[in-house]
Design a protein that fits this description.
By secondary structure, the protein is of the alpha/beta class. It has 21 helices and 24 strands. It has three domains: 311 residues, Glycoside hydrolase, family 3, N-terminal domain (TIM Barrel, Alpha-Beta Barrel); 209 residues, Rossmann fold, CATH 3.40.50; 126 residues, Immunoglobulins (Immunoglobulin-like, Sandwich).
């Protein structure tokens, strides 16, 4: 649904902002450019803290619905659902804001400017913050990012429900411990093909209100003071109209980390002059000195302030209570039954079935007397929530979800099995101090659910979550600690095993793929995660998630972590065979595709339509994700790239005709000079349940339909 704002109203907001700024002293202006903007009582300006977070729910301010982490939401491949979740988040944001304002609480995390979504590309699976993103693909990230922004900002023509922020602009994906001094070197081609498209879509399609700069330098320019990024691309090329905010204390890095300026005044001048309007931090207090020294003009400061106050006016913060349609949203909507039900649906939709040998899943509870639930993530609340999280009314770990689901009919035996990453649970033990318990539970059980993986203490943001290995990044893709050992101990008992992985990133579970009959990827599934996993395990819910990233076989096959060239990275450029490919995910039912057809075999500026008949040929209701990929048959071009997705719900025996539009852009690629063109020659267009590559087809036991189109001439797109 296209959002059409009242342009006359926006113009009025801008004029009001100009009038307000014109009455302010230079000192007052400078302090309004800090994230903790103080009150200016003589002008009727209330204190406002810009810093708030809503990555997968309103964060860090108490009660909220804790939805699955962003990477889990990405696994839904469902644009409509992403907007629904984001709309719920902003509803809770307004409800909390209304209550906070009533009690004059203007502290941090209490505003309506949400610094979400994170639309960086998950370039390397070792990056600790990758689980904050929508995965490794620019197209999927763009589509989900746009709809998330639209859900946050709302559809009212006069007022925004909340303000979204696309971050971290740009070319940002680790290493975390180098981010304050690191220079990400990226070619123009990689910039425009991979790192920039999601930001462009959020700006031009969703009209995102804010963009946050990254900590690192990109091609030698600090991102929060980059003329190339903030002026040439964001403002001039894309026509961005909102405000730019720095990442937190990133301006300080200009002189302390990057060494491109001599001190704070020069750093502030570089940031403000090149388009940064708001400082998360306190360094913009030096704006006064920078103006007095002639390093920036007061006109540029005024421009920044107009951008900022226009945002606050779009949120209705300078109008009487009752002016916006959101002013009466009650606090009771927060983590309500309706929100919890939506959260449960989200958790169900994000689970990916990676393996199901012999149709071990779904489990038949009527045939089970005792079930073992083993592993450090069996009862780990932290592994439900990811980072940048709120506080839910109730949490359901995997063991709790299974116990609730089975009630008193089945005995559930639970063990941690091992520490998440250490070699023992008790410091006084000799190590491996739960091995005998694992064996005992397996011996007593009819089936065993092994709950392994990571939690956000092992992958996260430097200085926030961090870990004992690498400032939040992972050193490798292996299961940490003794997890692999207890998996093998359980396997040796010859009991049926289901492996449930909770993680926000790829794990090289090659041994498990060879030996364990059933594997689920649950991500960080939110406060309702354990209930959702139980429903999937016992067949009440049919898994529909697809992989938003690649699971590699080894750490060794990855390029250097600090290498930002896309060669060898992600499904689009990798040459090795994946363990579990991007776009892959099984179901408890079977879908078949027939009669794939294109509206034309010629590639033109008008694009094309592709359609296919999808049938549910199994015995269970299921939701399929139809995927369209395009490959230019020329040397030096990426592998087949995702260019279309559609969700289709089918009862057993039901079939539907699905049609997707492929715009001209689906066939275009950027060259080394970032010229966007459709090259002359052949294009393969595939439609099916996965990528058109051998590993996906082997795992799904389905070949996708591949059609051919021809571009008779080169077409340069603006």
């Amino acid at each position: 649904m296209e959002i059409v704002r009242n342009q006359e109203k926006i113009k009025q907001f801008s004029e009001r902002a100009k009038e307000l700024v014109a009455q302010m002293t230079l000192e007052e202006k400078a302090f309004q450019m800090l994230h903790g903007a103080p009150a200016v009582e003589r002008l009727g300006i209330k204190a406002y803290n810009w810093w708030n977070e809503a990555l997968h729910g309103v964060a860090r301010a108490g009660l909220a619905t804790v939805f699955p982490q962003a990477i889990g939401l990405a696994a839904t491949f469902d644009e409509d659902f992403l907007e629904k979740v984001a709309d719920a988040i902003s509803t809770e944001g307004r409800a909390k804001f209304n209550a906070q304002q009533k009690y004059d609480d203007t502290d941090i995390y209490k505003g309506l400017t949400f610094w979400s979504p994170n639309v960086n590309i998950f370039r390397d699976p070792r990056w600790g913050r990758g689980h904050e993103t929508f995965g490794e693909d620019p197209y999927l990230t763009s589509r989900l990012g746009v709809r998330f922004v639209e859900g946050i900002q709302g559809h009212d023509e006069n007022y925004m429900k909340a303000a979204a922020c696309a971050k971290h602009f740009a070319v940002h994906s680790g290493p975390e411990d180098l981010r304050h001094s690191f220079n990400a070197v990226a070619s123009k081609q990689d910039m425009y093909e991979t790192y920039l498209p999601a930001f462009k879509a959020c700006v031009q399609e969703a009209k995102v209100e804010a963009v946050m700069g990254a900590y690192n330098r990109t091609n030698e320019e600090p991102c929060c003071g980059s003329k190339t990024l903030l002026q040439d691309i964001l403002r001039d090329e894309w026509g961005f109209k909102g405000h730019v905010v720095s990442d937190c204390w990133a301006i300080r890095d200009f002189h302390t980390g990057h060494g491109v300026t001599s001190g704070p005044v020069e750093s502030v001048a570089m940031a403000v002059q090149n388009g940064c309007d708001l400082n998360c931090g306190n360094l913009f207090g030096y704006v006064v000195e920078a103006v007095k020294q002639g390093m920036i003009s007061e006109e540029r400061v005024d421009e920044a302030l107009v951008n900022l106050f226009t945002t606050r006016m779009k949120l209705g913060l300078f109008d009487e209570k009752g002016s916006t349609p959101y002013d009466d949203i009650p606090y009771t909507v927060v983590d309500s039954k309706e929100m919890q039900q939506l959260n449960l649906e989200a958790a169900e939709k994000c689970i990916v079935l990676l393996k199901n040998e012999g149709n071990l899943l779904p489990l038949d509870a009527s045939k089970i007397k005792t079930i073992g639930v083993i592993g450090p993530n069996a009862n780990n609340r932290k592994a439900l929530i990811g980072n940048y999280e709120g506080t839910a009314s109730r949490y359901y770990t995997i063991s709790e979800g299974i116990q609730e689901y089975l009630g008193d009919d089945v005995r559930v035996l639970v063990s941690d099995g091992c520490h998440l990453y250490n070699d023992r649970i008790s410091n006084l033990s000799q190590g491996n101090d739960r091995h005998s318990e694992v064996k005992a539970i397996c011996d007593a059980s009819d089936v065993v659910v092994m709950c392994l993986g990571l939690d956000p203490g092992l992958e996260g943001e430097e200085g926030d979550q961090g870990n004992q290995y690498a400032s939040g990044d992972k050193p490798n893709l292996n299961l940490p600690g003794k997890q692999q050992e207890i998996l093998e101990v359980a396997y040796a008992t010859e009991k049926p095993i289901v492996l449930v992985l909770l993680s926000g990133s790829a794990l090289a579970v090659t041994w498990a793929d060879e030996h364990i009959p059933a594997i689920l990827q649950g991500w960080y599934p939110g406060a309702q995660g354990g209930r959702a996993i139980a429903k999937v395990l016992f067949g009440e819910k049919n898994p529909e998630g697809k992989m938003p990233l690649t699971f590699y076989r080894t750490t060794e096959e990855l390029p250097e972590f600090t290498d930002y060239a896309m060669k060898g990275r992600t499904y689009r450029y990798m040459t090795n065979e994946a363990l579990y490919p991007f776009g892959y995910g099984l179901s408890y039912t079977t879908f078949t595709y027939a009669d794939a057809a294109l509206s034309t075999d010629k590639v033109t500026k008008d694009g094309a339509e592709i359609s296919v008949t999808v049938s549910n040929t199994g015995n269970a209701f299921g939701v399929e994700t139809v995927q369209v990929y395009v490959k230019a048959e020329r040397e030096g071009t990426p592998n087949a790239q995702l260019k279309g997705i559609a969700k289709v719900s089918l009862q057993p025996g039901e079939q539907k005709r699905v049609t997707l539009k492929l715009p001209a852009e689906a066939f275009a690629l950027y060259d080394e000079e970032a010229v966007y063109r459709i090259g002359k020659g052949k294009y393969q267009v595939s439609i099916g349940t996965s990528q058109p590559e051998s590993r996906s087809e082997k795992l799904t036991e389905q070949k996708v339909s591949v059609l051919t189109m021809q571009a008779e001439e080169e077409i340069v797109l603006a």
